[in-house]
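Lecture notes, unit on protein representations.

Consider one protein chain, 212 amino acids long.
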Amino acid sequence: MEKIKKDDKWYNNPNLIILFLIALSAIIILSSQSFAVKNNMDAVSILRSLLNHNTIYFMSLAYFIILQTRVGKKYFNFLNVLLIIVYFIMFMSSLFTVFQSFGLAYIVELGLHLVILLYLIYTFIKETKVWRELKLNKVPFDEIGNDMYFYLIAILSIVALVVNLIDASNFDEVCVSLLGSLYYILFGRYIYLYKAYSDSKKIAKEKKKIKE
């Protein structure tokens, strides 16, 4: 039994998942820029690539690093709101991209960003005043559930990987696609673990009230 616990600890340990995400975000940023330099892109093109394709990884890197500090723990809810705003911008960007350049890869990316956005709202806003004031309780977030949200992210990430690998024209694009899909699966796992933790706390409080 002890061996089984050690074997599955890595994907049930939020602290370890966060460390993986920090490392993965940094690797993706450095890799994509090294690929750009290797392909002899000019400084302006490299900067544009950095801002357009790595924004979410920069935000993720900053988010998870700050979470490791006292300030991050204190302003956890505020950081989550910022994260939701970032993913809303990413979703809108994906939506406009689909209208401009219709393609399977863009559609899958749009679906992935939409699911992550809904999952973030469902997980981090549900117990706040914003949820009640905006009457989000009437939106059927619970119809999908924690497990299904995570599975949707994993499936869409894998589909996006397959599509990107088919369209990839060089090894650099293959590496970036693999790392990006792994990032989204781990990010989905992080949200899943927090939601499971939040639900367990809520159930414990309800049981305590019943006993009293």
